[in-house]
Amino acid sequence: MARQTKPVWSKVLYKKQPFADNYVDSRKFLEEMRKNENTRTYTFHQIAMAACVVSHQLSSVVLFVAVFCYMYFDWLHPTLVLSVTLPAALVAYLLLGYYSNQEWSELCH
User: Fold this and answer.
1) Distance between CA 67 and CA 80 in Å, rounded?
2) What 3-state DSSP class applies to 106?
3) How far apart are CA 73 and CA 22, in angstroms?
4) What is the pLDDT along the chain (109 residues), one digit of tens a residue?
5) What is the 3-state secondary structure (H, E, C) of 45-97?
6) Which end of the chain lies in a sparser environment, N or C, as judged by fewer CB atoms within 10 Å?
7) Dihedral sign for Cα atoms in the order 66, 71, 75, 77
8) How far, in Å, CA of 73 to CA of 87, rounded?
């Protein structure tokens, strides 16, 4: 009488096997799992700067919607908006040009 050997499971779907497609061998279960392989650690400074960027974007959208609503309901004249934002943009451009010539690391620390 010939002794029958138990078929060996392999992790391929293209080969006909006597196992279901979702079968997992209990001896190899979680053997190939790698935990936290691609995680990055962040410093508090990096997280705070990223939060500032998100906060700036959200406040810009809220300000745009508020100014749009005020102009839509004729509570604010477009000339006033232009006369306020144009000098502010000019001053911001000049400050950016001044500070971009300096070392940013000296400015931040």
Assistant:
1) 11
2) helix
3) 62
4) 567 787 787 778 788 888 887 887 777 778 778 888 889 999 999 999 999 999 999 999 999 999 999 999 999 999 999 999 999 999 999 988 887 776 555 655 5
5) HHHHHHHHHHHHHHHHHHHHHHHHHHHHCCCCCHHHHHHHHHHHHHHHHHHHH
6) N
7) positive
8) 25
Please count the residues of the chain: 109
Distance (Å, whole) CA 93 – CA 100: 10
23, 9 contact by CB (below 8 A): yes
Residue 50: the pLDDT is 94
- pTM of the prediction? 0.57
Burial code (b: 16+ CB inside 10 Å, e: under 16) for 6-31 equals eeeeeeeeeeeeeeeeeeeeeeeeee
